[in-house]
Amino acid sequence: MAAGGNFRQIKPNVWKWDVAGKGYSLKKYDSYEVAAKVRRIHTELGKVGFPHILPVVGAADERTVIQPWLENARPADYSTRNGRARTLAVLKALHATSAVVDWQSVPGLRSYPLIAKWEDRLDRFRSRRKELEPYIGSSAFETTVFHAEEALKTIRKSYEPEEGCTLLHGDVVHHNFLKGKDGRYVLIDFDLACTGPPGTETALWMHRVLPHVGYDFDYLAGERPSLARLSRSSLDLILYPNEVLREWLYLLSLDEEKRPILAGRLIQYTEKALSRWIPLCFQVTQAGK
Q: Aminoglycoside phosphotransferase domain location, by residue (predicted)?
């Protein structure tokens, strides 16, 4: 690929590169291993004709990945029925590639350490109580910890980490699904990709989507009946208040002067989630019965 052109920084490690009338995304990773993993995943998905990615077209060095820039792309909208349906379909298609790719044999792909990750997240949340309580309040803090502890008790008993093992994207936030001008959705940023049960990532997708449907699992399953047919190993993952914990820990990563603005939104978000958590847990435990 020819050098030169114009570079515009988008994020600390992402640039838009315009050269010879074309646009590219250039992403530089902290480690060679992650960059190599991302390239391998795109190579394997390209071999089987997976349509929901942008091809890797080059690398400036061992820690960079260059892909076409998707002009006028928009992130998925989880608040719409169509946005939910389309992104879930992309995820299912990704997971189905295990029928033609042995993902567990691809170098650099590790199994998803879900329980260890969630135990660590809860430990970090508890350990920073003094910093969090002025924002979240003692009652909401204790309620969040209670629901997380109870969920982990159930998950440790029911979780099957090798159930239908496949490729997991690893970060199903809405802006990692981009909708192009032609209406096609593509997945970007496979930095956290790993292997694990497809139902695990479907549950993580539901964690992201449920706030947009009032934490009403039955409503969501009414849209996509396959969700109610997930294994108990997968459904029990919904019981853990993952997004509440993650968002509050993210707040603590910010400079103190930036925290109050986000805290105002998080307080409302947490109040809504906790007010509906017990009904949500009841719906989830009844699913499949």
A: 16-203
In the chain the domains, ranked by start, together with CATH numbers, are: 6-68 (3.30.200.20), 74-286 (3.90.1200.10)
Query: Exposure of 200 by Cβ count < 10 A (0-12 exposed, 13-18 middle, 19+ buried)?
Result: buried
pTM (global) more than 0.85: yes
3-state DSSP call for residue 244? Answer: helix
| DSSP category for residue 55 | P
Q: Which residues contact 233 (CB under 8 A, 6 or more apart)?
A: 158, 159, 160, 163, 197, 199
Structure tokens at 104: 């567990």
**pLDDT at residue number 18:** 93
Cβ-contact 199, 206 below 8 angstroms: no
Q: Give CA torsion, residues 92, 94, 97, 98, to 10 deg.
A: -80
For residue 172, what are the contacts with CB-CB under 8 A and spacing of at least 6?
Answer: 87, 91, 201, 204, 205, 208
Return the structure tokens found at 148.
Answer: 């997380």
